[in-house]
Write a structure and sequence with these properties.
The complex is a heterodimer.
Chain A lengths: L1 H22 L2 E16 L22 E11 L4 E5 L15 H11 L9 E6 L11 E7 L11 H59 L7
Antiparallel strand pairs in A: 1-2, 1-4, 2-3, 4-5
Chain B lengths: L1 H39 L5 H14 L2 H4 L2 H18 L2
The chains are: A alpha+beta, B mainly alpha.
């Protein structure tokens, strides 16, 4: 029972950490190399990893629509492709409505190998070629160079601190509630079980004694 | 539509929090009044003392501050919209 409980909570918090890693903002320092729009089909499993049409457009879920992409190169030479979608009033709550403006900024900040301009891109989500999913870019900020610091993740620090506080608070209240209201009842039931258990073991020992009469006496 | 959905969902969730917080705050204040009576032993029945204290509490500003449960998230959303789209 103890192991099942441990397993459950470990799995729960692992899933939660994965979810938080997907949803909370992160900063990358990249060089924008271009942008494009592709037609994207949303009928598959990866639908889960996309937002919705632009905030002012129809909500009716079309099977496919255009998706803005931003191509970038990182300091280590690897490429990263971001999508650029409105999160609108939906999940996750970034309240991003300015995707077209962000696409224009991407054009403005795009640079070549010879004349490099580095930007910090705030984003959430993952790039996974197997699932064909992209992180969603939220904002650009011009930085000094490829090794510039992105600063402390203040939002994440505050958010996680508040969240841990909330969880500990709920846990504290729950324990108090349990010890005041539930434990007495359980103890009552437990006493009943114990009595039943005693009766059973009493019976069993009588059976055992009877079985022992068939064994060769111990010497 | 998405805005309506968010508003409806937010209203329901925040209302649950509001009701829970209101009950919790009132119960805490009631306990505090009881302790106060135990310490000071004023010249008045205990129940009467607690009842009067709660009446004063209900008309004071303190239960109204719990309305912040609605106001704070709305301000946070407005701030988020500003920071994400206009900065």
């Amino acid at each position: 029972m103890k192991y099942i409980r441990w397993g459950f909570w470990t799995l729960f918090w692992l899933l939660f950490a994965t979810f938080a890693h997907y949803t909370l903002p992160q900063n990358d320092i990249v060089r924008v190399t271009g942008s494009e729009v592709i037609r994207k089909d949303f009928s598959g499993f990866s639908r889960l990893f996309y937002a919705q049409p632009d905030a002012g457009d129809s909500d009716s879920e079309a099977i496919n629509r255009d998706l803005r992409l931003i191509n970038t190169t990182q300091a280590n030479g690897r490429v990263m492709v971001y999508r650029n979608e409105d999160t609108g009033w939906g999940w996750p709550p970034y309240f991003k409505f300015d995707s077209s403006n962000l696409q224009a900024e991407a054009s403005e900040f795009s640079s070549t190998r010879d004349q490099q301009l580095w930007v910090a891109v705030r984003h959430y989500g993952w790039r996974n070629p197997f699932l064909s999913i992209y992180p969603n870019a939220i904002a650009f900020r011009v930085v000094d160079g490829p090794n510039a610091s992105v600063g402390l993740p203040w939002f994440n620090i505050i958010f996680i601190t508040c969240f841990v506080g909330l969880v500990l608070g709920i846990q504290y209240q729950w324990r108090r509630f349990r010890s005041a209201r539930i434990d007495p009842i359980v103890e009552n039931v437990q006493d009943g079980f114990d009595a039943a258990g005693d009766a059973v073991s009493d019976h069993r020992s009588r059976v055992k004694r009877w079985l022992d009469t068939w064994r060769a006496p111990k010497r | 539509m998405a805005l309506i959905r968010l508003s409806a969902l937010g209203f329901i969730v925040l209302s649950v929090i509001y009701v829970l917080a209101s009950f919790y705050a009132r119960a805490t204040y009631r306990r505090k009044l009881g302790r106060e009576w135990d310490e000071e032993q004023p010249n008045i029945e205990r129940d009467e003392f607690v009842k009067q204290g709660l009446t004063d509490y209900d008309s004071s500003i303190r239960p109204k501050l719990i309305l912040g449960v609605y106001i704070v998230p709305i301000c946070v959303v407005i701030l988020m919209i500003y920071l994400t789209n206009f900065q």
